[in-house]
Specification:
Blueprint lengths: L4 H10 L8 H14 L4 H13 L3 H12 L5 H14 L3 H14 L4 H13 L6 H11 L3 H17 L3 H12 L6 H14 L4 H12 L3 H13 L3 H10 L1 H5 L1 H15 L2 H8 L8 H14 L5 H11 L3 H12 L5 H12 L3 H18 L2 H14 L4 H13 L4 H14 L4 H13 L3 H8 L4 H4 L5 H10 L3 H9 L8 H6 L3
């Protein structure tokens, strides 16, 4: 998210005291301040916001966890969790967190912003006009302006409105807090408009990358995506940052061999190297190259995971790599559960990745397992409680606990769509179809036809004899997005 005024104050307070300090120093010192004086909640909040702003999620997540176990307002913690999920591009979770935040605090601008960004990101066309109108209003709110511009740019690109996207993008890169991915998005827009500008754009991106390995690797991936693979080697030779850091150049060379599926050449290239702090990356690529050649890879892979779990940032990067590799689902699932068991700092992101993984596989038992772990860690979190009850009810397990949880949630939040749908599922499981229908018909008509509610509304309609309405609603449901147990309930 955009730089919060508290972040600015934190940086202003720290940087003058440490001449020549870099961002790692700032995080280290702020972490130590927070550890030495845990009663000062402002330190923890500053640390969380700094971590979110600079995408240091291994710093932000534990800071938010610590705040949750203090007397910090639950709304403040919920807002931070929504910010963190959005910064991690987990817009399914960000949207849920933000919706709950807005239900409890309708005037909260950050909650509304993140919820609307999630709708745009998740491709909900019905909300586009409303979302864009609200985002345009937020352009007048300076702390939220940058994120509003990003949302408007994303919406314009999704609808192939290149001129509008360019206008928003130009405003974004003029902002002093623009990130490298903002510059990369801007270069993509300009390249699509005028491909002949590539040399100029490449030079500008290299300057903004500032020798950051991930940013430089992103440039190589961007060139490849746009059919400029042959230009990568020449760019790498010209790039001073790459000449001064051979590991980055080797990473880009290895990445090119992966793209070309040149597995024997890749394993030969990687074998004699050592990449120091990013050794896990070399070992992971080598393990993949060996596996693709039907050679033994387990020892190399175990060495890669041993290196990666030494830091959350390395573990996150390895997870992203596996997510893009076909046929590595088993290794990824095993790795994420390994990270989840390590400590609280890794629990949240590991379980978030597992949620996305199990959702893609339509694995309800896996989603319940994740929900159980989250409930152990955050028993008072109402979103966690609702998910636990929902997946338990779908699988017809621990009904008494599920009903107790959802009964209490529904009393407190009867108008929350996700809670209403879980409560209606509880009534369906009890075969109290009349109550299930009454609960859902208290929601606005547009919500009753939304993907999260429509399946249960259709079931309740059919069970109450309104079969024609139920079938019409059922015909509009994208069943490819449903879990197996939901499909089974819809068989009428």
């Amino acid at each position: 998210m955009n730089m919060d005024p508290n972040c600015v104050r934190a940086l202003q307070a720290l940087v003058p005291e440490i001449p020549g300090s870099d961002l790692n120093d700032i995080f280290l010192i702020r972490s130590r301040i927070a550890d030495l004086n845990p009663s000062n909640l402002e330190n923890l909040r500053d640390l969380a916001l700094l971590g979110i702003t600079y995408e240091r999620f291994e710093v932000a997540s534990p800071a938010i966890d610590k705040l949750e176990h203090t007397n910090t307002s639950p709304l403040a913690v919920l807002e931070l969790r929504a910010r963190l999920a959005a910064a991690q591009n987990d817009f399914a979770d960000a949207g849920q967190q933000a919706q709950l935040l807005v239900q409890k605090d309708p005037a909260n601008p950050v909650g509304r912003l993140i919820w609307l960004l999630a709708q745009l990101k998740l491709g909900n066309p019905a909300n586009r006009q409303k979302a864009e109108g609200y985002l345009e209003d937020l352009l007048k709110v300076e702390p939220l302006k940058l994120e509003a511009l990003r949302g408007l740019r994303q919406s314009a690109l999704a609808h192939h409105e290149i001129a509008r996207a360019k206008e928003f993008s130009e405003s974004i890169v003029k902002n002093p807090f623009a990130r490298f991915d903002d510059w990369l998005n801007h270069a993509e827009i300009l390249f699509q408009e005028k491909p002949e500008r590539l040399p100029e754009l490449l030079q500008e991106l290299t300057i903004h990358a500032q020798s950051d390995p991930q940013a430089l690797a992103s440039i190589a991936m961007w060139l490849r995506k746009n059919g400029q693979t042959d230009r990568i080697a020449a760019w790498a030779d010209e790039c001073l940052a790459l000449r001064n850091n051979p590991v980055i150049a080797q990473m880009i060379r290895a990445d090119t061999l992966v793209y070309q599926k040149a597995w024997p050449q890749l394993s030969s290239f990687l074998e004699p190297l050592n990449w120091g702090k990013v050794e896990f990356y070399r070992l992971a690529l080598l393990a993949r190259a060996l596996r693709e050649q039907n050679e033994l890879f387990s020892k190399t892979w175990n060495a890669a995971t041993t290196e990666a779990i030494k830091s959350s940032s390395s573990a996150l990067q390895l997870d992203k790599m596996m997510a893009s590799w076909e046929g590595w689902e088993e290794q990824r699932e095993e790795f994420l559960w390994l990270m989840e068991r390590r400590d609280l700092a890794n629990l949240r992101w590991a379980l978030s990745s597992l949620t996305t993984f199990y959702q893609s596989k339509k694995n309800t038992a896996g989603l319940l397992r994740v929900s159980e772990e989250l409930y152990r860690a955050y028993p008072s979190n109402e979103l966690v409680q609702n998910n636990l009850a929902f997946y338990s009810l779908l699988l017809n397990t621990r009904q008494e606990r599920s009903e107790r949880i959802i009964d209490a949630l529904y009393v407190a939040h009867a108008q929350a769509p996700e809670i209403a749908s879980t409560f209606s599922l509880a009534m369906i499981r009890k075969q109290d179809f009349k109550r299930a229908l009454e609960v859902l018909e208290k929601l606005p008509p547009d919500l009753r036809s939304s993907p999260a509610i429509a399946p249960y509304y259709a079931i309740a309609l059919a069970a109450n004899g309104r079969v024609d309405e139920a079938r019409k609603l059922k015909d509009g449901i994208d069943q490819s997005q449903l879990l197996p147990e939901e499909k089974q309930l819809l068989q009428f």
